[in-house]
Design a protein that fits this description.
CATH topology of one domain in chain A: MetI-like fold
Distance between the termini of chain A: 48 Å
CATH architecture of chain B: Orthogonal Bundle
Number of helices of chain A: 11
CATH class of one domain in chain A: Mainly Alpha
CATH architecture of one domain in chain A: Orthogonal Bundle
Keywords (chain A): Cell inner membrane, Cell membrane, Membrane, Transmembrane, Transmembrane helix, Transport
Strand order of the largest sheet of chain B: 1-2
Structural class of chain A: mainly alpha
Largest sheet of chain B: 2 strands, antiparallel
Oligomer: heterodimer
InterPro entries (chain A): MetI-like, MetI-like_sf
Radius of gyration of chain A: 23 Å
Pfam families (chain A): BPD_transp_1
Largest sheet of chain A: none
Number of domains of chain B: 1
CATH superfamily of one domain in chain A: MetI-like
Number of strands of chain B: 2
Family (chain A): Belongs to the binding-protein-dependent transport system permease family.
Strand content of chain A: under 5%
Order of helices and strands of chain B: HHEEHHHHHHHHHHH
Number of strands of chain A: 0
Membrane topology (chain A): Multi-pass membrane protein
Helix content of chain B: over 70%
Shape of chain A: globular
Helix content of chain A: over 70%
């Protein structure tokens, strides 16, 4: 009897703990979405009444729209740069086409191991030394450095997982090297490449430290604009903007989870690139 | 295998695809890092003005109790965050690896949504929860400073930082737990061990590598966490990264900011070196992602 009770307790512990943890993970996001509907002119949780005016205000406010536009353009351009410099490198490194490929791969990963505050401080000092204010493409290039490692790693992982038999079969059937790349290898890694690009885009879009140090409020990206509103004069419209961002990430997350479910095996390396 | 592998000319040409990325890194990464290293040895004359070379900045940071306390606080926050995320992340990763399919989808979404939401937004959410007279100060009164809530407290910064880094821990642990051979668990249960016994003697020891790897990853990221301590800790709970911002952007004391940055990077790189070695040995590679 005690044994059965014990095993019942054992099987009940995990669900309870996991439920609490799910609540912990969701809490700050749920709270933001809820407060965005409050009728009070200040943030209140639980919200007081229901109104959509904060959303309407934000969507028609030119400064918020400009910030969102800045973020989109800057993130897209930096991921573009990262893809252009990262893809050729990933292909060569995945194929061990040069000597020291493993060390070079590690070298390319270094920007995600170094706190971004360090090299952003360095970039700021550099522009100061040159006595120029930071141009927008300066932010783009800094973000490209930050996102290149993710792109390279996703693409390399996809190329390394490809069955070599595919290529051998094509070769033995007389396909040219170019044709193998265009018709066999690239289509097979396109999906991983796309998920790497999406992850890089999200990271660049969300990044605060780089634009905050380099441009400050001059070129306000969405995170910079949210940051200064939160730090200086917070009102429910910031919660409304934040809720819209949460909604977008929720959509992406659901799509990628559904994608993972459809596949019989999920990726085994625990990397976030599996579902971006 | 790659064509032209044996010929010198082709060998040199093989490096060409690496040229763009190496150029970008040289200009945008190596040069800035070198600038910080050099600046950390310059003398601070006045705001934005620098003089000759000196080691005073490091002496100041490592001896002045104010700055030393800041560094200590950063390291303590990182250590506590690593522990907390391991404790909180393990059950989620376990359920993600062993649970039924519907639970996997739910958990994956719950872990991925915060991961893909800017840490500014997430910290803002905690600010609302932690606010004076907010629900957290009512529910968790004894944890914080009474009705003042958890804003500007170490507990508040710790909880919010752990929330920001938890997804990385979960994904790292999931990678390890998912790969564990399930027959080991079945064998243990068949031989009469209880669930708890099986977990403590089989699953936990076999996943310890992942726990350590995840903790190192979180530690390295948390030492230089900026957004969360800045928003939740404010001026009353400063850590090294927020002090670097204050010194470089507001006070224009670049040499001091650089010296602190050099020390932080040294800690982060040391931790990551151990992490890389460890994950190479155990195959627990993975979420080397840094959103802080």
């Amino acid at each position: 009897m005690t044994r059965r009770l014990l095993s019942w307790a054992e099987s009940a512990v995990l669900p309870v703990v996991v439920t609490v943890l799910v609540a912990f993970l969701a809490a700050p996001l749920v709270v933001l979405v809820a407060t965005a509907f409050t009728q009070t002119p200040y943030l209140s949780f639980p919200p007081d009444g229901f109104t959509l005016r904060w959303f309407e205000g934000v969507l028609s406010d030119p400064t918020w729209r400009a910030a969102a536009w800045n973020s989109l353009i800057i993130a897209a351009m930096s991921v573009g740069v990262a893809a252009v410099v990262g893809a050729p490198a990933a292909i060569v490194l995945a194929r061990r086409g040069v000597r020291f490929a493993p060390s070079l791969t590690l070298l390319i990963m270094i920007p995600i191991m170094v706190p971004s505050i360090m090299y952003v401080l360095g970039l700021m000092l550099g522009y100061n030394e040159l006595d120029v204010s930071v141009p927008t493409w300066g932010i783009v290039l800094a973000l490209a450095v930050l996102t290149t490692p993710y792109l390279v790693r996703t693409l390399m992982a996809a190329l390394e997982q490809l069955d070599p038999a595919l290529e051998e079969a094509a070769l033995s059937l007389g396909a040219s090297r170019l044709r193998i790349w265009v018709e066999i290898l690239l289509p097979n890694v396109a999906k991983s490449f796309f998920s790497g690009v999406s992850l890089a885009f999200i990271l660049a879009f969300d990044e605060l430290v780089v634009p905050l140090f380099l441009a400050g409020p001059d070129v306000p990206t969405l995170p910079v604009r949210i940051y200064s509103s939160v730090a200086y004069n917070v009102d429910p419209s910031v919660a409304a903007v934040s809720s819209l961002l949460v909604l977008v990430s929720a959509l992406v997350a659901v799509l990628s989870a559904r994608d993972n479910l459809r596949k019989p095996t999920t990726r085994k390396d625990g990397a976030p690139d599996g579902g971006a | 295998m790659t064509a032209g592998r044996n010929r010198g000319g082709a060998r040199r040409a093989a490096w060409l695809p690496l040229a763009p990325v190496l150029t970008l890194y040289a200009i945008q990464f190596v040069v800035p890092m070198a600038l910080v290293a050099v600046t950390s040895f310059r003398r601070h004359e006045s705001a934005g003005e620098m003089g000759g070379f000196t080691t005073d900045n490091f002496a100041k940071v490592l001896q002045d109790p104010y700055y030393l306390g800041m560094l200590g606080r950063s390291l303590a926050l990182a250590g506590e965050t690593a522990l907390l995320t391991a404790v909180l992340g393990y059950p989620i990763a376990y359920a993600l690896a062993r649970g039924p399919r519907w639970l996997k989808v739910v958990l994956l979404v719950v872990v991925m949504v915060p991961l893909m939401t800017s840490s500014v937004v997430r910290s803002f959410g905690w600010m609302v929860l932690f606010a004076r007279d907010g629900i957290f100060s009512t529910l968790a009164g004894p944890l914080g400073d009474g009705p003042a809530g958890l804003m500007y407290t170490s507990t508040g910064v710790l909880l919010a930082t752990a929330h920001v880094l938890l997804p990385f821990m979960v994904l790292t642990l999931y990678g390890v737990l998912d790969r564990l051979n399930p027959t080991l668990v079945q064998a243990s249960m068949n031989l009469g061990a209880s669930r708890t016994g099986t977990f403590l003697r089989i699953t936990l020891p076999l996943s310890m590598n992942g726990v350590v790897a995840g903790m190192l990853l979180v530690f390295a990221t948390a030492t230089s966490a900026f957004v969360t301590p800045q928003l939740i800790g404010g001026t009353r709970y400063r850590v090294a990264a927020t002090e670097i911002y204050e010194q470089s952007i507001n006070l224009l004391n670049w040499p001091l900011a650089s010296a602190m940055a050099v020390l932080l990077v040294a800690v982060a790189l040391l931790t990551m070196a151990v992490y890389t070695r460890l994950s190479r040995d155990s195959g627990a590679s993975g979420a080397t992602g840094i959103i802080g």
